[in-house]
Write a structure and sequence with these properties.
Blueprint (H helix, E strand, L loop, with lengths): L3 H8 L3 H8 L7 H14 L5 H8 L4 E6 L6 H17 L2 E4 L11 H7 L4 E5 L6 H8 L4 E4 L8 E6 L1 H14 L5 E5 L5 H17 L8 E3 L4 H12 L7 E4 L2 H13 L9 E6 L2 H5 L5 E4 L2 H17 L7 E4 L2 E3 L19
Parallel strand pairs: 1-2, 1-3, 3-4, 4-5, 5-11, 6-7, 6-8, 8-9, 9-10
Antiparallel strand pairs: 10-12
Length: about 350
């Protein structure tokens, strides 16, 4: 196995110069840097990560806290983006476990014991005291969909308001006026912003906001099904339903069809996420695309910028949303529900 001395000899430079190249010191000419990297490649030299960590006081690891199941399609696509960005930057991923139900537990101490250089958090609300500690701690942190930021903490989210408003506009343009919304659990910023987008979309389309057309669930398939069941029980059933997640939209469609109605012939449905399943689901789900993979990449890129540059200002980022129109939305059926099957 080649050593750093072998690389230095092959490149015709000192061991100190090789070390500087490995640790990205700026006082090395581009010509010398290329010679050293060529020698590393030729000799298939593997730098000692532990030694590099001691020099730069880093572990070259990033901790990820996810309190949403890995089976959730949003999480799997988010992790793909995170993984890609980490691989491109030379960092490894560590999944951080938690014991938030233990009053003596300190998430900050846990992060330090695992010696991670930075942390990405998704799925935990700002009301969690352990999460709030990250805002004032010195550990670089990027929150995803949690509106917390501080000296060493930033966050990234989707343009939730505009995303839902686009969905309302789309249904309005198809002739729908009875447009319902199945929200996520209210309280967290993401759910509140999406509800604001629904209300704003109605306002821009000249449709009065009616509380009977608002249902709340937990973003899940079962939650969407139960919410749709309540909407279908209304005297004036909606002709269009917007859901705060793709999974709740799938549940809503299942319940609609279970009641003998058709999607989109009787009721149009719009989701939010544009996970992989939205495309393969039959009929293809019209949904708001929030660029999940890109969010994962941008979260890591900015986290690493914080890790490697103590003066880097933690960002507050909003990823644009766009509407993907597929087969679950259609012009309003003027005869619905009279000509449709009833529960």
């Amino acid at each position: 196995m080649a050593s750093i001395h072998d690389v230095a000899k092959e490149a015709g430079v000192s061991v100190a110069t090789v070390s500087k190249v490995l640790n990205d010191y700026p006082d090395v000419s581009e010509k010398t840097r290329k010679k050293v990297n060529l020698a590393i490649e030729l000799l298939k030299y593997q730098p000692n990560v532990v030694a590099r960590g001691l020099v730069k006081r880093r572990s070259w690891t990033v901790g990820v806290l996810l309190t949403v199941p890995f089976t959730n399609p949003f999480v799997s696509e988010l992790l793909e983006g995170i993984k890609t960005a980490l691989e491109n930057s030379g960092y490894d991923l560590v999944r951080l476990s938690t014991r938030f139900d233990d009053p003596t537990y300190s998430f900050i101490k846990h992060c330090r014991s695992r010696n991670v250089d930075g942390v990405v958090v998704f799925g935990e609300g700002r009301e969690n005291k352990s999460i709030q500690e990250l805002v004032t701690a010195e550990i670089p942190t990027m929150f995803i969909d949690t509106d917390l930021f501080g000296k060493r903490a930033g966050y990234i989210t989707t343009d939730n308001v505009n995303g839902i408003a686009m969905a309302v506009k789309h249904l309005h343009e198809l002739g729908h006026r009875k447009i319902a919304y199945i929200s996520g659990t209210l309280g967290p910023a993401v759910a509140n912003l999406r509800l604001d987008g629904y209300k704003e979309g109605l306002r821009l389309c000249g449709i009065p906001y009616a509380t009977i057309y608002l249902e709340v669930c937990d973003y899940s398939f079962d939650g969407g099904a139960k919410a749709a069941r309540r909407l279908l029980a209304l005297r004036e059933q909606p002709t269009g339903i917007i859901c705060a997640s793709d999974m709740s939209a799938f549940g809503a469609i299942h319940e609609i069809e279970k009641h003998g109605f058709s999607v989109p012939e009787d009721i149009s449905v719009v989701g939010f996420d544009n996970t992989y399943y939205a495309e393969v689901f039959k009929p293809g789900l019209t949904t708001v695309n929030q660029n999940i993979y890109t969010i994962g990449i941008r979260a890591i890129e900015n986290l690493i910028a914080m890790i490697e540059n103590s003066s880097f200002t933690p960002p507050v980022l909003t990823e644009p949303a766009n509407l993907i129109i597929r087969q679950t939305t259609a012009p309003v059926n003027e005869t619905y529900p009279e000509t449709s099957a009833q529960p």
